[in-house]
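WARN retry 2 of 3 for item q-0093 after timeout on previous attempt; input resubmitted unchanged.
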Amino acid sequence: MHPLPGRAAGRPRDLSVEVSYDDGATWAKAEVRHSEVVLRHPNGDGFVSLRAKSTDLSGNAVEQTVIRAYRITSATS
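OK item q-0093 returned
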């Protein structure tokens, strides 16, 4: 991760990600490994919503939610 020039935020201290498969009605904690999110999609077609939260060493915080971030479809043979 490379910071933007002129940024006020410091190095990330904490990162958490939640995932929803019902358009944000319910959320589950997603696994974060080395700044990568690991998701286990349910069977069937649907959409994935994501909510990420991060705090830096200076105490700055951000939260972003994307409903229907992407679509999942069943594999067809």
